[in-house]
């Protein structure tokens, strides 16, 4: 039987069947990719990315609109770590641009976090360079950086912010909600870690924070800071404060403390220097508190400025012996003379006419002592005025000359502002108004006004305070040529919490001018200076700040002659 040749038609048909089967597999896969699983694979190819749009923080301004704290544009560089294909390679390209070492950046780019920060608060120019690298998984979060154009000026009032831009101290913390605004967001499609141009998305725009206008005058603030800083340095004091107020409005024009800090770099200063001592530090006022005793006596018609007193070298009350700051024989002083010479013994003798020291307590409270000022400032210390039920046998007597209770510097400035304002206390204020992003002005609430003493009593106390800076008084260093000045020196034993004892002194001078038409109150306090007294140390600071403020506020001299205050009688 001979050989048969293969059937070529069968082979052809078999090859066609195999080829058709392979084509059907490809076609089926294509249908799956483009039809059945198209949405799933499209989702795998693209990512829906959402980034925060940071709201711009509001500006803090002085009373004339000059910025004391503002925000400039910045960028936070972020990453979706799941989209980064080569962390070390991307880190090497980023490092020279953002100022972070490559090893740190590699760690920040590695992992499975869908959102992480790579570098914060870089400039827009830096971000443009990063963007040009076209790196996978790298995104921008528009934000802002807080800057303080005047550096330490009013730093203890303004405060500072943390790394996340939220307030951590002062008004930045207190007014966080008003200043911060509301963040927005942007959502877009990305592929391979990069935004898809023209792919659309959605955006919720951020709402900027409101601007806050303060009552602070930056020029007066600057002068007050310069003066108290120099005084703290020259007297080797632990610290010092200056408060400048408008008695008719309660507005605080300056609130200076020394030492201070630079809010652009708050971490470089001790925590104690970042607070506001004029509000947070409580101390015993000493002889500046004698005006409250005078208010109680004069309001009850128990004494007049001309009442004659014989003041011995020492006096005993409640089982304790009291003395003045200087030794003397019997002094024939008018009541005005006890204020002018700051006699503790004369003050106690006058206060005996109250018929009980507890009658002093309502006046301490009415002047606002021992209670919050209403400023709501972070860490503000309202001081302590113990109720009569907690008094010892001598507490009432020491209170007559400003010991045995504690205050802060703004409270004492407010006491003198009340006298300067004819006996009406106006609650102090630091915020003038807020302005929303759309320009709507919201003035601060009208401050509370409370009559504490009568206009006639306020006038009598004012005249006695003029005797302090007049011939024979303890405060000649506070005189200002051409202006009538009323004020009081103070030297008090200083309570030291570290030992639970009295150690060192608090020196102060508080006054107002022009005495016959008061426009400005200045309160100066020095904690534990080396030598001197309230008049010799705090008086010159008062004079410097008061004179500058009167000129800045364009307050002319009244032209009236100061009264001649009789100190001694024969």
How would you summarize the topology of this molecule?
Blueprint: H1 8-36, H2 38-45, E1 47-53, E2 60-61, E3 67-79, H3 87-98, H4 102-109, E4 116-122, H5 124-132, E5 138-147, H6 155-158, E6 160-161, E7 167-169, H7 170-174, H8 176-180, E8 184-191, E9 194-195, E10 201-204, E11 211-214, H9 218-235, E12 239-245, E13 252-258, H10 271-274, H11 277-280, H12 290-299, E14 308-311, E15 314-317, E16 320-323, E17 331-334, H13 335-340, H14 344-351, H15 361-366, H16 395-400, H17 409-420, E18 424-426, E19 431-435, E20 441-443, E21 449-451, H18 455-469, E22 486-496, E23 501-513, E24 520-527, H19 534-552
Parallel strand pairs: 2-11
Antiparallel strand pairs: 1-8, 2-3, 3-4, 3-5, 6-7, 8-9, 8-10, 11-19, 12-13, 12-24, 14-17, 15-16, 18-21, 19-20, 22-23, 23-24
């Amino acid at each position: 039987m001979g050989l048969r040749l293969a059937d070529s038609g069968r082979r052809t048909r078999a090859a066609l069947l195999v080829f058709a089967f392979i084509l059907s597999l490809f076609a089926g896969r294509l249908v799956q990719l483009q039809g059945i699983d198209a949405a799933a694979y499209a989702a795998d190819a693209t990512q829906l990315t959402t980034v925060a749009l940071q709201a711009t923080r509001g500006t803090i301004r002085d009373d004339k609109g000059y910025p004391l704290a503002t925000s400039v544009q910045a960028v936070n560089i972020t990453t979706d770590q799941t989209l980064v294909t080569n962390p070390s390679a991307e880190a090497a390209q980023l490092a020279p641009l953002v100022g972070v070492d490559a090893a740190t950046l590699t760690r920040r780019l590695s992992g499975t976090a869908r959102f992480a920060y790579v570098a914060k608060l870089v400039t827009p120019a830096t971000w443009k360079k990063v963007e040009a690298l076209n790196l996978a998984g790298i995104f921008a979060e528009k934000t802002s950086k807080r800057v303080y154009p005047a550096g330490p000026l009013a730093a203890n009032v303004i405060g500072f912010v943390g790394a996340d831009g939220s307030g951590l101290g002062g008004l930045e913390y207190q007014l966080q909600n008003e200043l911060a605004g509301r963040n927005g967001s942007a959502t877009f499609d990305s592929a391979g870690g990069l935004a898809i141009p023209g792919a659309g998305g959605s955006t919720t725009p951020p709402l900027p924070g409101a601007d806050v206008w303060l009552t602070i005058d930056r020029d007066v603030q600057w002068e007050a800071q310069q003066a108290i800083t120099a005084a703290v340095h020259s007297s080797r004091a632990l610290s010092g404060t200056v408060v400048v107020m408008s008695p008719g409005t309660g507005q605080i024009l300056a609130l200076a403390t020394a030492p201070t800090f630079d809010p652009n770099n708050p971490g470089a200063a001790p925590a104690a220097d970042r607070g506001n001592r004029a509000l947070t530090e409580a101390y015993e006022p000493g002889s500046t508190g004698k005006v409250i005793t005078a208010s109680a006596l004069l309001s009850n018609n128990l004494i007049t400025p001309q009442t004659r007193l014989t003041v011995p070298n020492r006096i005993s009350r409640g089982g304790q012996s009291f003395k003045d700051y200087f030794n003397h024989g019997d002094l024939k002083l008018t009541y005005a003379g006890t204020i002018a010479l700051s006699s503790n013994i004369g003050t106690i003798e006058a206060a005996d006419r109250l018929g009980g020291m507890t009658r002093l307590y309502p006046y301490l409270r009415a002047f606002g002592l021992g209670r919050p000022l209403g400023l709501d400032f972070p860490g503000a210390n309202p001081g302590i005025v113990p109720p009569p039920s907690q008094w010892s046998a001598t507490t009432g007597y020491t209170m007559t000359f400003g010991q045995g209770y504690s205050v802060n510097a703004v409270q004492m400035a407010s006491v003198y502002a009340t006298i300067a304002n004819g006996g009406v206390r106006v609650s102090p204020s630091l915020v003038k108004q807020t302005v929303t992003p759309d320009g709507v002005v919201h003035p601060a609430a009208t401050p509370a006004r409370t009559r504490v003493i009568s206009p006639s009593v306020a006038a009598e106390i004012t005249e006695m305070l003029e005797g302090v800076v007049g011939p024979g008084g303890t405060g000649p260093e506070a005189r200002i040529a051409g202006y009538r000045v009323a004020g009081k020196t103070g030297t008090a034993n200083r309570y030291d919490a570290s030992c639970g004892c009295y150690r060192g002194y608090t020196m102060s001078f508080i006054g107002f001018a022009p005495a016959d038409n008061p426009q400005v109150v200045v309160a100066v306090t020095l904690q534990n200076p080396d030598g001197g007294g309230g008049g010799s140390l705090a008086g010159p600071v008062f004079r410097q700040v008061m004179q500058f403020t009167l000129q800045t506020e364009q307050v002319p001299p009244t032209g009236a002659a100061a009264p001649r205050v009789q100190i001694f009688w024969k």
